[in-house]
Specification:
Elements (H helix, E strand, L loop, with lengths): L3 H6 L5 E3 L8 H9 L4 E4 L6 H14 L4 E7 L7 H13 L4 E6 L9 H8 L3 E6 L2 H10 L3 E5 L14 H11 L4 E4 L5 H9 L4 E4 L1 H4 L8 H9 L5 E4 L7 E4 L2 H11 L4 H8 L4 H5 L24 H21 L2
Parallel strand pairs: 1-8, 2-3, 3-4, 4-5, 5-6, 6-7, 7-8
Antiparallel strand pairs: 9-10
Helix pairs in contact: 2-3, 3-4, 4-5, 8-14, 11-12
């Protein structure tokens, strides 16, 4: 399955893993890359340059294939300006193959200093956007591709709230760089649909949680198989930071606080990530923020990364071939 994305990055399949806080560690990153996709190393899990550099080195001991590093330039309690600078400097020094940038456009961050630094180092840069306007701005600035993030995605979908099936073809109409579809991507049908909409590949994250290489408690896998597409909700608009998460006791409390006009200080304990180990390592899903997308409705099993990617591409090719025969 060749596209402009696979040719640009030297990968077998046009499938990228998105950033996943507390989940996208070197073993999962490398497993996805070894399976033919583009594994993700999420920078915010590392406190400084030395830690991120060590993580990049670990990925490179586990795979000789390309991978991508995520940096999300959004307000965060655990990441400050000095850490962001360290992440960008490390990625340039290590000449990582690619970076997924979310939040503030890197070409505008600190007058574009790190954008130029990374481009000069040969790093392929992809900006995740939720609107055509921002996609056009990214293409004009010199990004190597844009990630069209539909409102279905988990984590922090942008406030434009445009669905994948509209955002992707609109983005393809307006930019001349490769477009990657994000939001609702989970299986071969998703991949086939994205390609038909004009995308050069997909970015998915939630589906990778239900792989054996993702280091979570078995109860997490069971919960995501059990939950349906209508069991996530958008939150955070009252504090200016929209997110999508699985409905549980914490998110119900957040929705109640927001409905009565409560502020950041009330909301923060429920969405700060302090229950991360409680969720992912212990499998306790009732409390804390679980940033997954509507694609949970398409998760029916747990597989290895190779099994997942091979099956997705096989299904996509079969679907595309069957539909060609209809005409």
């Amino acid at each position: 399955m060749k596209t402009r994305l696979t040719e640009m990055l030297g990968i077998k399949y046009p499938i990228i893993c998105g950033g996943m806080m507390r989940l996208a560690y070197p073993p999962l990153c490398a497993a996805i890359s070894n399976a033919g996709g583009l594994g993700n190393l999420t920078s915010a899990m590392y406190k400084n340059k030395a830690e991120l550099k060590a993580a990049i080195a670990e990925v490179r001991t586990l795979t000789d294939k390309p991978f991508i590093v995520n940096v999300t330039l959004l307000p965060a309690m655990s990441v400050g300006p000095e850490q962001y600078r360290g992440y960008f400097e490390t990625c340039a020094e290590e000449k990582v193959p690619a970076m997924e940038i979310g939040g503030v456009p890197l070409n505008r961050y600190e007058d574009g200093r790190y954008f130029k630094l990374l481009k000069d180092a040969g790093v392929k840069l992809f900006h995740k956007v939720g609107s055509v306007k921002h996609g056009k701005g990214a293409a004009k600035a010199g990004y190597d591709g844009v990630i069209a993030a539909g409102v279905e995605e988990g984590g922090h979908p942008l406030n434009e709230n445009v669905a994948t099936t509209v955002l992707t073809p609109r983005m393809v109409e307006e930019v001349d760089v490769p477009v990657i579809t994000a939001g609702g991507m989970a299986n071969g049908r998703s991949l086939a649909a994205a390609l038909c909409l004009g995308a050069e590949g997909i970015l998915m994250a939630t589906r990778f949680i239900n792989t054996y290489e993702c280091q979570v408690h078995a109860k997490v896998h069971e919960e995501l198989i059990h939950r349906q597409e209508n069991e996530t909700v958008l939150y955070g608009n009252s504090i200016g930071l929209q997110g999508r998460a699985l409905i549980n006791d914490s998110i119900r409390k957040v929705m109640e606080i927001e409905a009565r006009g409560g502020g950041l200080q009330e909301v923060l304990p429920h969405i700060s990530g302090q229950y991360g180990d409680h969720i992912w390592k212990e499998g306790k899903m009732d409390t804390g923020l679980i940033p997954v997308g509507q694609s949970i409705g398409l998760i029916h099993d747990t597989l290895t990364c190779k099994e997942l990617l091979d099956r997705m591409v096989k299904e996509a090719n079969e679907i595309l071939a069957q539909n060609l025969k209809r005409f």
